[in-house]
Design brief:
Length: 324
């Protein structure tokens, strides 16, 4: 089944990428809903550029939808939207998760677009400064005044050339599957590649042709690493992670879980069809090596990818409600 785009947080760009200082990024957890709970917890966070905001969806059926300070309960044009994530009352673990990376220091305003949840105060903000109460009051109608003219958030533009870029979807794993599907693709500069993580617990980690099963970031070079994405058996929602193809050089990658790489779980973008550096040669090398699958922690991967020379990370999102 070809999946559509509607489930994915839309691209948040990385305009200020090259000037982002190397900082250790943090992952900030936010719980969405829960039995009888119509709120995000916490209701707002202060985050640094590069931090990841990770939403865990609990009962019942909520969204994480970007809005604006001026219109808290309406979707922002070109803003991100998780779509509805229903979670049954019986669920006690393996809650769906969505995350995105904070791309700049501007405030981000978010609400749940289920029924009247927003009007009941189910709103959230990143870096609201002193405006969170005003935002929530505007959502619930408990306004005194919100005549602030703060700029709304901002990061929803794409670095890709408008109109011409394409998103390539790659499925990572699946029940009993230790492979990327497809395992090699051809992409244009400006295209994006969205990895959709299936069972069980994989990464997409940039490596090199010569060392297929070794993270570039572990050798001190910039390289992306998605971190581990565990997906429960029977899950129908799949996290995604999008990279942007930023030049024509081949991109080599592998899964750094256990022995997945040496089992042939490798991937390439723009490998050549002939000559020594084909995808098949890369895969053979991976399977012949005793690669260091290593235990790079996720934070290391995140901070290095902010510096990646060959790839700009455009999105971290989640696929919701995909029925397979
Ligand atoms: C979740 O909410 C949406 C919007 O109200 C609705 O269309 C959808 O059917 C709900 N899903 C479930 C499983 O209740
Ligand atoms: C977040 O930053 C604002 C100022 O920008 C400050 O007033 C507030 O106390 C901070 N909140 C937390 C939880 O650190
Ligand atoms: C309305 O807003 C005021 C000031 O922000 C607050 O003290 C009050 O509790 C709010 N009332 C409700 C019903 O939320
Ligand atoms: C996923 O794999 C990593 C690395 O082996 C491990 O640390 C982590 O606990 C696993 N997560 C789950 C939920 O199994
Ligand atoms: C990509 O993979 C397919 C199937 O494995 C193979 O036929 C093709 O030659 C590969 N492309 C490159 C560039 O190696
Ligand atoms: C991989 O490691 C095993 C045991 O550690 C060893 O017997 C084997 O020769 C190694 N293979 C290669 C290609 O290095
Ligand atoms: C790719 O990224 C590098 C480093 O961030 C940047 O200098 C270069 O302009 C980018 N190239 C494209 C085509 O975006």
């Amino acid at each position: 089944m070809i999946l559509t785009q509607k489930y994915v947080f839309t691209a948040l760009a990385c305009l200020s990428f090259a000037v982002i200082p190397v900082v250790r990024s943090a992952t900030i957890d936010v719980v969405v809903g829960g039995p009888g709970i119509l709120k995000y917890s916490p209701e707002f966070v202060n985050a640094s550029v590069g931090d990841i905001i990770r939403f865990t969806f609990k009962q019942k059926n909520h969204t994480v939808t970007q809005s604006t300070l001026q219109s808290p309960c309406s979707p922002k044009a070109d803003g991100f939207d998780s779509d509805f994530v229903p979670v049954a009352d019986s669920v006690t673990q393996g809650f769906p998760v969505a995350q995105f990376t904070v791309e700049n220091a501007d405030p981000l305003w978010v609400y749940c677009r289920q029924a009247n949840h927003c009007q009941q105060g189910m709103v959230f903000a990143v870096n609201p400064g002193d405006k969170f109460e005003a935002f929530k009051a505007a959502a619930t109608g408990n306004t005194t005044s919100t005549t602030t003219s703060t700029s709304t958030s901002t990061s929803a533009t794409s670095t890709a050339p408008a109109g011409s870029s394409k998103d390539h979807r790659v499925v990572v794993g699946g029940p009993g599957v230790l492979a990327f599907q497809p395992a090699n693709i051809t992409a244009q500069v400006g295209d994006t590649v969205t990895f959709e993580f299936r069972q069980k617990n994989h990464t997409v980690t940039q490596s090199s042709f010569n060392q297929p099963c070794q993270a570039l970031s572990a050798t001190g070079q910039p390289g992306f690493d998605t971190g581990f994405h565990p997906v429960a058996d029977g899950s129908t929602t799949f996290p995604t992670y999008t990279i942007q193809v930023n030049d024509t050089k081949p991109i080599w990658a592998y899964c750094r879980q256990a022995n997945h790489c040496t089992s042939g779980m490798v991937f390439s973008v723009n490998s050549v069809e002939t000559g020594p550096n084909t995808f098949e040669a890369f895969k053979s090398k991976a399977m012949g090596s005793n690669g260091t699958s290593g235990s790079n922690n996720q934070n290391a991967g995140i901070s290095t990818r902010l510096n990646s020379a060959s790839i700009a990370i455009a999105v971290v999102g989640v696929v919701f409600g995909v029925l397979c």
